[in-house]
Design a protein that fits this description.
Number of helices: 1
Strand content: 35-45%
Structural class: mainly beta
Distance between the termini: 23 Å
Shape: globular
Length: 406
């Protein structure tokens, strides 16, 4: 399969969603919201795994892989998941080198839903290392066994860096005053959630608190706040006791978006939008706000798992460009100049790989809560490829028509 760099030009959009990364803020954490995506029809079966081409691609898939059981994924091996429309409840576990290493068989009643005309709802969100899989508010292990449920507010929950806990925001409305109190909570599936922070009550409206990074392994959580599609400030809390560790705001305007490292030690605040994306980005230490690096003319969508590299978007929106650069040395290791836009992504835990889903230009991906599919808006977007960007900048193209499990 050809490299992304070799594809013919076609217009695309900026829309990007990384798990645990607040890229285009809404009432839910970006990368955790549910989207409808129109997929192309299943293609002719290809070999399950082929020898990497000179471009670094490994092809999996087709109908044969969709029904094959590759066995349980190896324990403690970080994986990402993709599924096929032919059997969406069977998740193919892919190592970060692009090899199929196992299959997680969820009950046939769960998994990405297939709707009319190929429209698919992806309700699957795996933990950073893939050891747990969340489908709506239910969590399964790699054997397909039930771990437990998450509870209220699970649609906006973010997986923790320990792969066992989730952080989320719950909104409590006072029936008398109408005031809304946002509550930050932490939960281990199957157990009762624990409230960590109760924010000040305020009138309801287009205001959102979001979990940018949940890091129980480092006793930290970073929460952002904003109105509409922008962020205006963020807080770093200690999860064990809810103590405020640091707070940052932008006096002159609003952040376009905020990205945070998996351990919540660094944050990239993308300032007010300019013609080509964010007008400026400041990378800061979350504990004290010290500036580590500054970038101009792009929007940081995500840090790598080890916090040393950045996935950056450059506009304009109809001709997107994405690149990976070092935080400190600023060296570019990968670049993609369209035509597709980055629709979803996740990062290699503790490493420097990025897994991304690329989609064709089309109407904005839209939320859909109707599990029957009868009342879901029909999107014209289609996933062109699911790709793993390796630390050295090579690409592992997993193929088209896949459903990403993140």
């Amino acid at each position: 399969m050809s490299s992304l760099r070799d594809r013919p030009a076609r217009q695309g959009l900026r829309v990007a969603a990384f798990v645990g990364v607040l890229a285009v803020a809404a009432a839910a954490v970006i990368g955790v919201a549910i989207y409808v995506v129109r997929h192309p029809s299943p293609s002719t079966p290809t070999a399950r795994v082929q020898t990497p081409s000179p471009s670094g691609s490994v092809v999996i898939g087709g109908n044969d892989s969709a029904i094959r059981d590759h066995g349980a994924p190896p324990a403690r091996l970080p994986v990402v998941y993709v599924a096929y429309p032919e059997r969406p409840s069977w998740l193919q576990a892919i190592g970060w080198d692009g090899r199929v290493v196992g299959t997680v068989k969820l009950p046939d009643t769960v998994g990405p839903r297939i709707y009319n005309q190929g429209t698919i709802l992806n309700g699957i969100k795996a933990s950073p290392d893939g050891s747990r899989v969340r489908v709506d508010d239910t969590v399964y292990d790699q054997a397909g066994g039930l771990v437990g449920t998450v509870g209220a507010g699970s649609s906006t929950a973010a997986w923790g860096d320990d792969n066992r806990h989730l952080c989320g925001i719950r909104y409590e409305t006072n029936a008398t005053s109408g005031l809304v109190t946002p509550v930050l909570w932490l939960v281990e599936p199957g157990k009762q959630p624990r409230d960590v922070v109760r924010f000040a009550a305020a009138p309801g409206g287009n205001v959102a608190y979001d979990v940018s990074t949940c890091a129980p392994g480092h006793d930290r959580v970073l929460v952002t706040y904003g109105v509409g599609l922008s962020r205006s400030q963020w807080w770093l809390y200690r999860l064990s006791d809810g103590r405020l560790l640091h707070h940052e705001g932008l006096a002159s305007g609003e952040y376009l978006s905020v990205a945070t490292t998996a351990d919540a030690t660094l944050t990239a605040a993308n300032a007010a939008m300019g013609a080509g994306g964010a007008s400026s980005t400041v990378v800061q230490r979350t504990i004290d706000g010290t500036t580590v690096a500054e970038f101009a003319g792009g929007e940081v969508l995500a840090f790598s798992g080890d916090g040393k590299r950045l996935m950056i978007f450059h506009g304009p929106q109809d001709i997107p460009t994405y690149e990976v650069r070092g935080v400190s040395d600023r060296v570019q290791t990968w670049r993609y100049g369209g035509p597709d836009y980055l629709a979803a992504g996740t990062v290699e835990p503790g490493g420097q790989g990025f897994a991304i889903a690329l989609a064709q230009r089309g109407p904005q991906l839209v939320p859909c809560q109707d599990l029957t599919g009868r009342n879901c808006p029909q999107s014209q977007s289609a996933l062109d490829s699911v790709v793993i960007v390796q630390p050295d900048g090579s690409e592992v193209d997993l193929g088209t028509g896949l459903i990403p499990g993140w």
